[in-house]
Amino acid sequence: QLGIPDSQIILMLADDMACHASNPLKAQMFNNRNRQIELYGDNVEVDYRGKEVTVENFMRVLLDRHPPGTPASKRLDTNEGSNIFIFMTGHGGDEFP
Description:
The protein is largely without helices or strands. It is built from one helix and two strands; from the N terminus they run E-E-H. The longest helix is centred in the middle third of the chain and has 9 residues, at about 55-65. The two termini are about 30 Å apart. The mean pLDDT is about 80.
């Protein structure tokens, strides 16, 4: 949407906030207060979801050390000269602080 190819974006959603009791919009999460993009909508491609969101998978994405058969959609299309920007947000947790 902003000129960054999808092949260079990996979206990981733990799926624990949308249905959390403190979420006033049950089963919905938006990218900002203006509710421009619904993260669980049909127009958002989630690469890792729920139990797939682990420290191990995060490191595999960064290091490009995936098991055989991992689809290209779950890999970054980068090389040793690439710059990687990591944006993390959420409430933290025991297994993924």
